[in-house]
Specification:
This protein has 474 residues and is mainly α. It folds into 2 domains: 10-381, Growth Hormone, Chain: A (Up-down Bundle), CATH 1.20.1250; 387-473, Winged helix-like DNA-binding domain superfamily/Winged helix DNA-binding domain (Arc Repressor Mutant, subunit A, Orthogonal Bundle). The two termini are 28 Å apart. Strand 1 and strand 2 form a beta hairpin. The protein has 22 helices and 2 strands. It has helices at 13-20, 29-32, 38-67, 75-90, 92-97, 104-129, 134-157, 160-183, 201-228, 239-251, 263-283, 290-319, 325-347, 350-353, 358-378, 387-390, 395-398, 402-416, 420-430, 435-442, 446-460, 465-473, and strands at residues 232-233, 237-238. The chain has a two-stranded antiparallel sheet with strand order 1-2. The longest helix is centred in the first third of the chain and has 30 residues, at 38-67.
């Protein structure tokens, strides 16, 4: 796969959206130092913004489940969200400059506007980024998260006036591309996946969980830990920002890994668990030692990398067109805001106030590490569910040259009128792969693969894997 395929320079505007994202606390560092009467304003702003983000995100996901999300990506809501994003941050400017303006009421209005805008713009950006497969998403999200982190580090180290000017440039840039695409009708044209889901909402949520559960959990743990602990290095560098920058460096080589196996299982069953084991070993050393100090730094890089991997996995799920961007990113924003709230609440508990929450957060991290390790250990022992439909791949098929098989499957798909996705799945079946492999490679659920396989069998006029392979060979 060409990693640069479909990439355009304007995609880098997404870094501006990440740098100004209100549900991510570091985006508020600039304004946190500039307000007159900051405590009342910021408390009202943060509480309203996070709670309403949970409500708006959940509502968008529910709407997408029942009616599809094409309406959420049309020009009216995207334009309204862009205006709300600019006005919401615009209210902070006079609040910083004029005494008495930074009231709780103004903070609540700003938070409400920004939470609504964040949900709609996240869905719009998600629909745009759905053009990228997993490897491409890993590369470009690592680049954009790295750029956003550098911008946030810049904002925390310059004067308020300079930072405000930079922020006033970034906020419109966050909305420009989604607005342009919405008015051209390109966001509505993105396949929202509604045609794949005729079953009940609970079944669709289970299917989504089977695809993105591990990355989603990682992103939620990241949100909780970043909300519960605020560590500032040299009173300037916020470690969560630096962690994302380091995480981007960690992720970049992953997209270049050459493997015949699907990339998602390789990441979450091998690479991430290995990183967990290293952190567990380093955290076992006594306090004040170099290994424990290194573990502290590596933990921020680890969770930064986990967040980037999660975003890339969500992009890949949207790219597969099985689930709509409204469902994926509505749940993501709602879950991230909810876990941030839980993190902030936890930080007020006595157990989290000991040593800046280190021991308590270590317990949370260890539980997450245990979840990752258990998933990696037990994944190979899961019973295969596709033998009844596809059977075991033959040795002859396993030895075929992949390019030759793909070419013959492409011809067969064109002759039998297969859809692009069915043709893609046929290429995997022709090489002897089963349902689980196909689902992991394409970042879709196994139930959807089975539906496509049945359709492929019907269109090809075959009733078994052997007959399918014979037709491919012929």
């Amino acid at each position: 796969m060409q990693l640069s395929k479909y990439f355009k320079p304007e995609t880098l505007m997404f870094a501006a959206f990440l740098a100004t994202l209100p549900v991510y606390a570091p985006s508020q560092l600039l304004f946190g130092t500039g307000f007159i009467g900051v405590e009342n304003f910021m408390a009202a702003f943060a509480n309203t913004m996070l709670v309403s983000a949970v409500v708006f995100g959940a509502a968008a996901a529910l709407w997408s489940l029942r009616r599809g999300d094409a309406a959420l990506r049309s020009r009216v809501p995207v334009t309204a969200a862009s205006v709300a994003y600019i006005v919401g941050y615009g209210l902070m400017v006079p609040a910083c400059a004029v005494e008495g303006v930074a009231s709780p009421a103004v903070g609540a209005v700003s938070g409400l506007l920004l939470s609504f805008a964040t949900v709609v713009l996240a869905i719009a950006w998600g629909a745009y980024l759905a053009q990228f497969g997993l490897r491409q998403a890993l590369l470009w999200l690592a680049v954009m998260v790295g750029l956003a982190s550098l911008v946030q580090l810049l904002l925390s180290s310059v004067t308020f006036a300079v930072g405000a000017i930079v922020f006033c440039v970034l906020v419109p840039l966050s909305c420009l591309l989604p607005c342009w695409l919405a008015w051209r009708g390109e966001l509505e044209a993105v396949d929202g996946g509604e045609s794949h889901h005729a079953g009940p909402a609970r079944g669709r949520l289970r299917a989504l969980a089977s695809v993105v559960a591990m990355p989603f959990v990682g992103l939620m743990v990241f949100a909780f830990i970043m909300g519960a602990r605020k560590f500032v290095l040299f009173d300037v560098v916020h470690m969560e920002v630096l962690g994302c920058a380091l995480g981007a460096i960690v992720v970049l080589p992953i997209c270049l890994i050459k493997s015949s196996r699907p990339l998602m299982p390789l990441i979450y069953r091998l690479l991430v668990p290995l990183f967990c084991l290293v952190l567990i070993v380093l955290n076992a050393f006594p306090g004040g030692t170099a290994p424990l100090w290194l573990a502290g730094w590596m933990s921020y890089a680890f969770f930064g990398a986990v967040a980037i991997l999660a975003l890339a996995s969500l992009c890949a799920a949207a790219h597969a067109s099985e689930f709509s961007p409204g469902l994926i990113y509505g749940l993501t924003v709602a879950g991230f805001a909810l876990c941030s709230i839980l993190g902030v609440v936890a930080s007020q508990l006595p157990v989290f106030q000991v040593e800046n929450g280190g021991p308590a957060l270590l317990v949370v991290s260890t539980l997450y590490f245990a979840y990752l390790l258990a998933s990696a250990l037990f994944a190979p022992f899961r019973p295969a569910k596709d033998e009844a439909l596809l059977g075991e791949p033959s040795e002859a098929t396993a030895g075929e040259v992949a390019v030759d098989v793909a070419a013959r499957c492409e011809v067969l798909a064109a002759e039998c009128g297969l859809t692009p996705r069915e043709g893609e799945i046929l290429a995997y079946l022709g090489r002897g792969h089963g349902i689980a492999f196909v689902a992991e490679a394409l970042v879709i659920s196994e139930s959807t693969v089975r539906t496509h396989v049945k359709s492929i069998y019907k269109k090809l006029g075959v009733g078994s894997r052997e007959e399918l392979l014979e037709k491919v060979d012929a």
